[in-house]
Amino acid sequence: MKNIFFYDKGIKQQGPNDFVVWLPRLHNIHELYKELGKVFHFSDDSCGSWDAFREQFYYLNVDEIEQCNIHIYHESIAKIIPTWDLAMYLSVINEFITEHMQDISSHQLFFYFNIKEADTIAKYWPGKLVIEESYRGRRM
Predict the structure, then answer these.
(1) I need a surface site. Which of 17, 112, 117, 130 has the fewest CB within 10 A?
(2) Rounded to two decimals, what is the model's pTM?
């Protein structure tokens, strides 16, 4: 099982199958797409825009997705992505999971939200928000 972390603070050394996307070195949303592309083996030239990323994400190999635990720390991502872009990003993940739920039922996707940011994101993503002030996280 692969663990993918999107985080900006110290994470203890993970296992050999873990992939950490270090957000502080990303300067814009296009660089985030490229990092996501590396995780899922997209070609670099196909991840430079939201549309390209969305298209690639929809055609991911289901078997590969099934082998991932994705940990997304919203506080980190919010530093480089405007709120409306973050909402779109979360929506695409949610649509993919919902659409293919029968194929990827064992997939675990964890979102960690700070209480202060919950209201903002809830406007764009009602009913799909996990609030965990301590960042312990819950399965979604």
Answers:
(1) 17
(2) 0.45
